Protein 1
Amino acid sequence: MEILVCVKRVPDTAENEISVNSSGSDIERGDLVYSVNEWDNYAVEEAIQIRDKVGGSVTVVSVGDAESEEVLRREMAMGADKGILLSDDAFTGSDGKGLATILKSEIIKGKYDLVFTGAQADDGAGQIGGMLAAMLDWPYASLVNRIELLDDKKIKIGREIAGGNQEINEIDLPCVLSIQTGINEPRYVGIRGIRKVASVEIPVHGASELGVNSASVGKASAKISKVDYFVPALGKGAELLEGSIEEKVEKLIELLKSKGGIK
């Protein structure tokens, strides 16, 4: 089973206090700590587990600059077999369609049975998986939290839908799946694993290697652009509780009682 997992380097929300810059054009990025997108981490773990059951290999791929190598090496230390970096000045400023175009060009160079993306990426848009599937003309499922291999041509997947319910589908291979958190428990990556892959060569593919027309990607071709970042104003009736956890709990109980929520 040949599996490709799309991963992205993003600010680590557990390690950073995210704030908007003074011009409102972006978040403050100067001192941010970065890591792999959380959903992508679950996708890589699922790919590794499938490979370990049936054989094959897991390749991780990322569109980004040289610093994205850090994320690829982290996922290789986790257990992925290979990493590929898609990097070119022409890719800068690509919207979702542009990113999917770049990834599609890499995918058709290989022979993959499964392509995974995280259910949420690219500022929460969650659009790359669906776009990729449409461009490749492959079956697609989103919010996947269960995968069962039936044979070498078909799999059964579970999707998380409204109300905590499950939807079960059978899908032909090859296909694209967007993986939901909770499908597994991603394994711990130790220093030994990181050292093991530290010197492994990661190929870098640009527009020419991929056969991508520079006019079809990048900022100039983007149909969607970010025009403003802002922190929403505090709405009427909203109240922020301050103090320790215990103090907040006491205040919340008092508020609920005063509003008739509890007696």
Note: The two ends are 58 Å apart (CA to CA).
Protein 2
Amino acid sequence: MKGLLGFVLILFANVAFADVAGISGADTAWIMTATALVLFMTIPGLSLFYGGLVRSKNVLSVLMQCFAITCLMSILWMFVGYSLAFGDGGAANAYIGGLDNLLLGGIVESTASGSIPESVFALFQMTFAVITPALIVGGFAERMRFSAVVLFSAAWLILVYAPICHWVWGGGWLSDLGVMDFAGGTVVHITAGVAALVAALVLGNRRGFPQQAMPPHNMTLTIMGAGMLWVGWFGFNGGSALAANGDAAMAMLATHISAAAGAFTWMLAEKVRFGKPSALGIVTGMVAGLGTITPASGFVGPGGALIIGISAGLVCFYATIYIKQRLKIDDSLDVFPVHGVGGILGTLLTAVFASNALGVFSGQEDIVISSQLGVQAIGVVATVVYTGTVTWLILKLTDVLVGNRVDEDQEQEGLDLVAHNERGYDL
């Protein structure tokens, strides 16, 4: 019955788009589905994942920040973000797009982007522009003013995300250089991770960190959110093929293998180091595996995905310990060690496991590993330096305009009441 329903839907999709030259009904149906999956990653996936990790007095503030960012980034993407990321910037095209698509102007029902309507492409990319600033919330959770979060996120989308997206995916200079980023290792994970680290440094540690333990208040919420992230990531990576084809299928397979390997490796590392594995550890390892495979997902095979997932579990596990315990930086929800380090690791390993000359660990590309590794390294360094510098400047500006951090009494009371006059729980 389900198979028949799917056949009928694809049949109708093909009929519906038959009058638009070059548009595939099957590809369109898949990218529309993938778009919904990526939005599902932010609301409710990331919201619940982050909400469970903070203390109970701040749970609503995190949910509110994710929800507000979703709304605002969607509006800004329509207004100017899409045009800056994917528009033709003329002489400046290597660095930033133009304003031809302001307010998504010029996009109508018959406008195509490859084999799908441009409206679907713009909407799919909008969901990436939504989740990337939302990831940064984990770096300043429990201590940043809501007005500062809104102002920072708006400026960051326009000044950081849109330009780097254009560099890599919009025909910019990193694309011309040959940087391989299938679904967002540089564009999403390195930018979000570096921005979160800079935010944690600029705002300073939460009151009581690191002397005072600040465990997650509700691991049930976090695990529910983690499961939603895992499912949604199939749309994130598989949809980045922009077609219902073998690249999409391989990206989904690689995504699942890396997530499983990252989760299990992190769990084993915890068992060895601390004597017991934790639920928090296994879901964090899953996210590390997902983030690390993202840039490589459509280029590597199952064997490479397994190694990437194992590497993510180990490297991100020790990066988390180093950032929190050695450097004592309060990146509250481990955005940099998981997403930033994972994005860097995955971007570099793409140059290795995308090669078709590694036997069972081969990928799909005919590349020279050493040369491609140099190209990937340039992409990593450029993304880190630009993101770090501009994020720091934005935070300094928002601090002057509205003040970044709540005062000590407000932080002690919790942002739910201070910012929103509501409680997450009223039992």
Note: Residues 4-13, 15-19 have pLDDT under 50 and may be disordered.
Protein 3
Amino acid sequence: MSSKKRILSGMRPTGPLHLGNLHGALANWVGMQDKYDCFFFIADWHALTSDYEDPGAITGFVDEMIIDWLSAGLDPQKSTLFVQSLVPEHAELFMFLSMITPVPWLERNPTYKDQIVQINNKDLSTFGFLGYPVLQAADIIMYKADGVPVGIDQVPHVEITREIARRFNFLYGNIFPEPEAVLTKTSKILGLDRRKMSKSYNNAIYLSDNPDEIAKKVSRMVTDPQRMRKSDPGNPDICNVFEFHKIYSDKKTWEAIAPQCRNAQIGCVACKKVMAENLIKAMEPLHERRAYFKAKPELVKKIILDGSEKARNVAKETMDQVRSAIRIKD
């Protein structure tokens, strides 16, 4: 068994991955591979909690997500990459945990409250949507993860998992460690319109976008809303393009652009063009890896199946312990 601490995290396959996903999670995952025993999974059952009316679309995004992960630098030799639905033990543990989780714990979940209000084009008044933190807890404690990499806003998600694990241990014996939130740093990167980058807003730059698509999208990015003409002085502090410069352009470039913008020495069109060129250049290694894996569907399928088999072997051991603890045998 590895002496490294184990971490686990997942993503819902609800669409192609974009730069927000890369800087919000993937880049952190890639950086953790040498330090931790990593388990990363595609949460296709979780996607059903909100997209249950069109499950076919979920299935279609699974292979594309794995390709994006591999393109970003996740290595199946270092991390276990798997698909949730290929490890049915998750559903069994979810069932056991749902028997002991108080409903008020789920109703007070801030994400549940927010999304019920915000997502008004779908019927989310289902048990699956209310109970998704229980499935999430099953995903995490199944592998006895020491930590879950999250941003500060996601810490409550890990806390409810700790509460559920604690309650199980109290009732049936000390089976599960209580996972810690592993806080990760994320780069500030918004969508083309300065809102959160999201496929729902049609404001995303996807990892699969080719150079022409990237250049076209950058050309319509919102800049300083107060700057109407090239002769108007701009404010890079509130300009989304400048935030991209700080990520994708070298320091010398963006330090020179800032005073030029403030003094109206460079227009938004020229500024965007420079940034687009640097973004495209930075994405070249990712695009090369993506083309490689895209051309090898059998290799991608093998990576999915091998990772899922490895994950399931761990899950089977855990479920043997769980059934024994609650005195239910095969």
Note: The domain at 209-290 is CATH 1.10.240.10 (Tyrosyl-Transfer RNA Synthetase).
Protein 4
Amino acid sequence: MVYRHGQVSRSDLHEQTGIRLNSIGGETAELLERGVLRECDVQVQGRGRPRVPLEIDPGSRHVWGGAMSRGGVQVGRVSLLGKLVGEPTSQTTRGGEATLRAAVALLGEYLNQDTLAVGLTAPGFIDLSTRKMLFSPTVASGRSVSLQPIYDAAARVPIALENDAVALAARWALTHRADAETGGDVLIVRLGDGRMGSTLLVNGRPNRGSVTGANELGHTRLPVEAPKCFCGQVGCLERICSTEFLSMRDGGGASLVERAGAYDGSDLAVNEMLELLATGLSNAVNFTRVSRLVIAGELTGCKAFTKALIDRVRALTLYQLERRLRIDLWDRTEAQPARIAASLVLAHMYTSRWATLMTVDGELQDSLLAEAGRVDAALTGSMID
């Protein structure tokens, strides 16, 4: 409530939530002590007792964000209002264990007593129970890599570790918090040159599945000739959405972004790519029946290209679903991966429908299960009373 409204007094919180004023006082006192909240100047309103507004403290504590990728790692401190504290640090690596070692070294450099929690991202599949990266473009050999050194470096600081596409969905939940709070099912797809990340939010919460990772729309396979994917297969949608695919078709030397930016409907290779992309996206919509499709990434700045893609997605989507489907473009996704990684923690703090798996004191905690436990305890208590 404080994050949403900016400044809220204890009395306001009591009136808006129905929680007892004494309970509000105890909770806010703890958050003040932890440096999450701070008091503002006293407000005098009529004859009543002056109100002391509370707001998120942007200076006392911070969240550490770290983003591991194919080519390296970026880290940075992010305030509790989601702003970078200083400039992020980026380090280029050859992937795999070298990226992990760089992340551990930078974590040791950035982490201090004011770090509230760590948000960490990596592409591919992650087994949080064994703390291993199972399947990722950062590891060319395809073998798993243990992430235990990250946890050792963080010591007792809580860690939220997720796929980078899930972190992007957390960022969306923060920047669209009114929409995220109302629930609904949303498919967020980030398009890049040879990269495609996607996350399905079910009633505002990330779809978990059997292993932590993105919803692998990029590895939807179509029976067409395309560059071989790092997963070992041919025809993956994320390799169709690439400069290499266009070059295979006509030998052109311009990049996907350049050709998408100049698109006027006459580029036959781009037309073919658009048809295949629209097939993958519309199939995903038909399968999940989402109410909203969010297309993100740098390609959203190519207006004619994006319009052609949206028109074709709508044409291929079942009519009964298409008329209920909202399609949004979101271009604020590429810069500052460390900030996006930190969003894993901030969305968990500020968006009630968001849920994340967080390691606290060495134990993996599921906020959904914790919430269910609180509800069960409340119901049991009521029955006993």
Note: The chain has three domains: 2-57, 62-168+341-350, 181-330.
